[in-house]
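Here is one chain, start to finish.
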Amino acid sequence: MKAVKVLGSGCANCKATARLIEQVAADRGVSVVVEKVEKMEDIARFNVMATPGVVIDGVVVHSGGIPARSKVEGWF
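Its structure:
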């Protein structure tokens, strides 16, 4: 099971990113737990300056904008 954090204020792009990750993971048969991190002090701990940011198993893999579906597929 992969632990995924979507970093952002809860904006439309952050919500779309979380949905995309859940959809790709389901399509690939990968079990994920997606957590939305919205507090700025928590986001700052990951040194992400542009949201949405994505952290998988403790590693920042993306920041700034909705990632391309192909990029998300590469994570799984």
